[in-house]
Structure formats: structure tokens, C-alpha cells
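TICKET #2291
ISSUE: user wants both folds in one file
ATTACHMENT 1:
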Amino acid sequence: MSRLIIEASTPLCLLQDAGRFGMRHLGVTQGGALDWVSMRWANWLLGNAVDAPVVEITLGGFSLIAEQDACLALAGADLDARLDGQPLTPWRSFMMRKGQRLRFNQPLSGARAYLAAPAGFVAPLVLGSCACVVREGLGGLDGFGTPLVEGEYLTYTGVAPGLREVSVQQRPDLRSNAPLDMVLGAQIGSFSGQSLFDAFNAAWVLDRRADRMGIRLLGPALQYQGEPMISEGIPLGAVQVPPDGQPIVLLNDRQTIGGYPRLGALTPLALARLAQCVPGNVVTFRPVLQVQAYEQQVAFLRQFESMPVARCGAGQP
């Protein structure tokens, strides 16, 4: 068993996998990596299962020291990662020698980086997952939803297949300003005509009131004209509109039911892009049919599975 010691961390650095499923009838949310696309790539770089546990590092402030030589992988945001002071760019696997320090400083592009180890980091399963949900006290290294802290060890048992990198053409564009696709919801017809125009034509600014439960957006106030609602189940990516008219996009650690009307729900690929945005970024929405969202998802996964292996070039860390 190989180990990495955590030298520095923040409450935003968490152990995550694909999340918990089949538990919402118990009031347990799913958790899991917010940018599931980057998590997949991090695991692909090491030949892991796509849902193997990884470290989700949000906005930096995380540092590790290797106790043995290690082959790790990094995908997602560029958080100014440095290996013994030398820049380390994401979307590749890399060697970390015994005693070397890996530090994530601050965002240069995107918000969340994903660090993977061969076969995934070792952690107890709670309700079928090690995904850390702090609010519910589930998952993480201790099984009780505790963020990663200084002095803890990250352990893994696998062996990497060799150094890989994701081709430039296949790396997600974290700076993209393309509209976020939304499948329309059951209450869409109960918003005013002006609100529907604004929802899909206005620019929405990400508020500072954002966490793994949801992201509040600032823009024109949307007006719901329907009857009061009874609380109902909330899907991942639901775009709720509370009485103040400012939408909230609900994420992995959301509550399981809610009574606010919904414009719809973002597609999985749109959610992965949104997870890499920071407060102050501007987003727009585009309505799509459910069948379109399904076809996009299937096409992405097929492309991912057929991706040829790209080996790191000479001189890569």
C-alpha cells in the first residue's frame, strides 16, 4: 500500500467518487464529483474504473508529500499546481518521487481539479459510496463526511499502466462561454412570457452564495404565475426559482425534495462546465429537448470509450 501525506488542506478539498444512488427515498443526497467529466479523465489516465475515488480540490490551498514514488493523474482546473516548485499542468499522469511536494495554489483556469491514484484512493464505503457530503456526515476518509485535513494519509494499492495525457482536442474548454443546455421542466409553462424570454436570453452572473448544494444566479427577476406547489423530488441540475425570482442551480449535495417551481434541469455535460465556473462568471441557458440531451450524452460517452491512448512526451513530469 502506497501513501501520500496531506501537508495542507481546506474545507473545500474532499474525497469524491461518482456518488450515492438509490438512496433519495431515505433523504440521502447523491454527492460525488461536481465535474464528473474531469473525474472520468483523471481516472482514465491511470486505467482506473471511471468512478474510482479521487480528490476534488476546489480553488487550491492543497498540498501533498509522497512517502514513495507515485504515478498520479491530474485533470480539470489549472490551480497553479507545482511539483517541488515546478509547474504541473492538468490532463496528464505524472511521476511524483519520494519526498516530493505537490501543491495547488490558486485558480488560473477553472475552479476544481481532480487528483487520481492507481485503482483509486482507499476509503470506507457508506451506503455504497465514499463520496464526502459534509452536511449529511457521510463519506470521506473517515466515513463521517469530514473534509481532508492536514496530517491525514491518502492511500492507494494499484499500479499505473504508464504515463498518459489527454489530447488537446479532447480536453474540455473550461473557458467556454457557450450556453448551458437545459431540459425544460414541468412548471415551464407557468412563468410569464417575459420571464421565459429573459431566462434564455439574459446573461446570468454567478453569485458568491454558492456551494456544493447549489449556485445562485443574479439577473432579471423571473415571475412564476402558477399555483403553489407541493414539495417534490429534485433532480441533479434542477433550476429552481424562489420567490425573489433569482434562479438557483441545484448540484450534487442538494436537498432531495423542494417546493419551488423549476425552469428545468441542466444536462450532465452542462453541469460539468458549470462546476468549473467561479463567482462573477457569466452564463447563459439554451433550451433542449430530452432526446437531444440523451443523444449528446451517449455520443460523449461513446467517444470517451473509443479514445486512443496518448502517451506523454519526453520531458513531461
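ATTACHMENT 2:
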Amino acid sequence: MISKIASALIPFLFSMGAGYFAGKVKPGAMPLSSINTMLVDYALPFALFVYTARMQRASLAQHAVLIAVLVGVMLVPYFVSLLVSRFVFKSDSATAAVRAVTIGMPNFASVGLPLLRAVYGPESDLTVAIAVTTAAVVMSPAALLLLERARSAAPSRSSEARQTDGLLVKALRNTFLKPVVLAPIGGVLVSLCGWTLPDLLSQSLSIIGNTTAGLALFSTGLVLAVQPFRFDAQAGFGVVLSNVVQPLIALALVSLLAVPKAIAGQAILLAAIPCGSFGILFGLPYGVSDASAGTTLVASSLLSAVTLSVTIVLLGHL
């Protein structure tokens, strides 16, 4: 068991730590926006397309209930965080939205592939692909709706700015046109049609797709390096929601929905993944920079070394 935990966590912590070190030693030297573009628009979509296209139709059917589990795992903490931020900590709606998405959306894209592969093997690739796609489709609109609403309600908004009300519809449409969403959907269609990817195409896509895990973890470290750290009640509450409550929600849902054991374990481990940086990135174009969300991101990532270890041990006894 110790060997399994070490093989699952040490490589991902090392890669993330390397990115953090690079971001601290030479601040600004690493073009984070370019790295994220490479990851989100190319490497990850290529990997997700190949993984899903190779799956058998029977495997896809078995994973259908996983979507319901993942939606619950993300939306329950999202709404709890939103309500607490607004009515307990008295945050404005835009800041509350950034914080809620940061907490509710685990770092599936960066941590999911290397972690689940180490614990469950290559057969878990489809689970991660479904998780990334579900997160993009559900949580992107959840952030954009509130951020756009907050911007439209600003008193200083000019009449010219009000003409951009259609931006929300455009943003939501663009969510479903992103490569990271289209790629796994395309792969699923290939699998459902019973087609087989030509070896040359599969190998070509895999050259870049295989860089996903390392690139994603390294970029996460870079993001962590620039986040402020001021631990307070808000950050502590967010860490508890992300690292403790989310896996417990997954455990309750897989039991309630009678999810097959193999998929149930993968769903719980996905829910135990620390929160990601997408909420923070969503807020930047809207001028929202929340120190509490940044602190939650850093603290959740650090604490995940413990919470993921405990989750892996407990899953071994289920």
C-alpha cells in the first residue's frame, strides 16, 4: 500500500514542485499563458480524444452514471461556498463566484491523469476524460453567469458597455466549442460508431498528448507560485469543502446510485483531488483577484498529500 501511495503521489508532487520552484526562482520568466494554451488547446484535447476513441462501447455505458456523481460532487460545494461567501463573509457576487468555482472544480486536468493511472492503470483514462469534459461543461457556465451578471450590474457601466450583454451567450457557446470539450466528445462518437483510429493518426496525436500530465502539473506549480497566501476563515472553509467534503459527497453518491465498484473508487479518488486554478483564471478578465481563492488553492494542494494518501488507503479496504 505504501508503494502504491508513493508511486501515485511522489511523481505528481515532484512535477508540481518543479513548476513552483521555477515560478519562484525566476518570476515571470515562464510564459504561463502560453503554457496553458499549449495544455488546454492542444496536449490535453489530443490525449482525451485518443483515450476516449480507444474505449469500447460497453465501457462508455458503464460510465454513464459517473456524470451524475461528478455533477453532484462539483455543484454541492459550489453552491455552499457561494452562499457562505455572500451571506457569511459578505463578499460581492463576482468574488464569491471565483471562490466557488475554485473550490467546486477539482484539478482534474492536471492531477487526474497521472494520479488515476498510477492507482487504477490505463483503464481509468476514460474516467478522467469524462471528468474533464463534465467540469468544463458544468462549471464554466456556473462561473460566467455570475461574473457577467456582476459586470452588467456595476453602477459605472456605460451604455456602450451594456451593448455587450450578448457576451454571455457568446461565452457559453464558446465553452462548448473549446477543444478540451470537443475532443472527448469526438472520441466518444468514434467509439460509439465502432471505428478504429488508424495507427499513424493515433501515434501522431499521442506524441503531443503524452506531454499532458507533466505539462499540466508543471503549470499548476507555476500558478501556485504567484498566488498570495493569507490563511483565514474563508480559506480554511474552502479547504475543508475541497479536500474533505467533496470525497464524502462522492462516497454518498456512489452508494446511493449503486455505482460499480471499480468506477466508484475512481470517482471518489477524483473527488479527493485538490481544487484547481480555473476559477481564478476565469476571474482575471473581469478584474476579479481574490486572495482567499489563491490561498485556498495553495493550501488545498499542499494538504492533498495527506488527504489523497488517506483516500487511497481507505479505497483499498472498500
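RESOLUTION: both attachments delivered.
EXTRA DETAIL ON ATTACHMENT 2: The two ends are 14 Å apart (CA to CA).
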